[in-house]
Amino acid sequence: MLCFICKSSQTNANSLTKHLKVIHGLCSGKTLRLKCGQAGCAQVYGTFSGFRKHLNKAHETCSDPGEGPSTAEDSVGSVCYDLPSVIPPSDSVLLQKSLVHSCAATIAELKVAGVGESTIHSLVISMEEIVNDIHNQAKESVKSSLSLQEPVKSDIEGKIDQCFEKMENPFNAFNSGSKRTHYFAKKLGQVDPVEHVLGSRFETLRNRTTGAYDQVVVTDKFVYIPILKTLQFIYNHPNVKEMMQTESNSGDNLLKDLCDGDLFKSHALFSKQKHAIQIQLFYDDFETANPLGSKRGIHKLGAIYFTLRNFSPKYNSALHNIHLVSLFHAQDIKTYGFSKILDPIVQDIKILEKDGIRVPLYDDLVYGTIVQVTGDNLGLHCLFGFVQSFVARYCCRFCLADKEDFQTEFTEDSPKITMRTQALHAEHCQQMETNPRLPYVMGVKQSCLLNSLQYFNTCEHFSVDIMHDILEGVAQFEMKLIILHVIDQYTTSKEVDRRIKSFNYGYMEQNNKPPTLKLVEDSNNLGLNAIQSWCLLQSTTHLWRFGLSK
Q1: How many domains is the chain built from?
Q2: Is 460 found in the same domain as 471?
Q3: What pLDDT is stored for residue 448 in this prediction?
Q4: Which of 27, 249, 281, 365 is 20 to 30 A from 352 via CA?
């Protein structure tokens, strides 16, 4: 059987699997891609077990040596190391390293999946005991199979004991939190979060020694994961070239991506540098405790994430390509503001804009900046320094339209619509700084630190909240009016419900089909979440393809 990387011949499936692990350093994981490599077979597998079963079933007698060396494309998605120039003295040492590396990869996948550290520790300790029991059972089985006479038997058993004592348990290297942290930092590398102090406050806490409650000084902090170091790790990934998005073809005049818009094409950086790093930030708050309980909001956290818009959408939709930038208590925003939290982010982005960074993918320096900031309406208004009440007179972050004109003016060409500009926004921020007693000026409460960047300004940022505005807002309201009209003029509510439940939404949308609609008169929605609303919105016209009779 042939190795798809080096084309060497192995005796059977087990030998080939061992060869891939020991010589080429492949290990289990989401990025593992094992090509069959046998003549006329193009099967690709993501696990060693599936790969081994395929070889035993389909190529049991295969001995064709194949033709030609493999290319770099043959091993896309797998971690491949160059063959050593000097053959190691013993395969057992390499096999032991491979076992440790496989255990590390398994633990790393658990950490990425969000499994708690205590659960991982319990699992490692249990696996350590299981492997020890397997070693002891194997040693006793080997001893019991010996049919020798004394003193030769004692001598052989002594050598067997020495042999098994030299076999290290691969989980011994991970049986504590410090060992796991040290291994991942040394072998795989990691970006450590950096604590920043926001300020201090007094709080009454229980003294564990005396049992009394004392007033102590508590330091308010937040953590920042350096974005430049994270970018270096991303661009050092072996598959980063494959993940890069190809140039958008705008010949059909369709808006398929952010880079198809006029704002991107006229951008001072992205229009001139093809490989400039496009950073998309996302901000949102989340409850770590019961969101409906009486203590909601106390443990609420705010998080800022980033993704690279240079990557294809199919990669950016994966959770492991959404990177945490900052984590903080949501209540600290009201006390200290957003500027202190954004400061380390802005400092790194300024370095990226002015000095650039070196990445293995390109020979020249690569520059970059923020291309987009996303989030819900409340989060973006809080981040950008606009009013967070949407019943205020000037509550739009894009224009200066009066609330009274919201239902009558819908285009930028209207004489009543004045778009926010950098000059106008700077003037409003200056008025707020001059007179801090004002609640807001034209919807502006304070300046945003992101506006100090060279290539980004909040007034030229047009990211809307399609989830809340459309899918959970206007779309459901309009669909409800249509459905009520259909029920009133052409059919019954039972028929509408029957059609929605029995309609074939297709394989991809089967889990997103809407439940029974809530056609309550005093409600403005249908009781659907965003994905269910999107599914129904796409299928609405097909639901009424056949005639209706009341």
Answers
A1: 5
A2: no
A3: 92
A4: 249
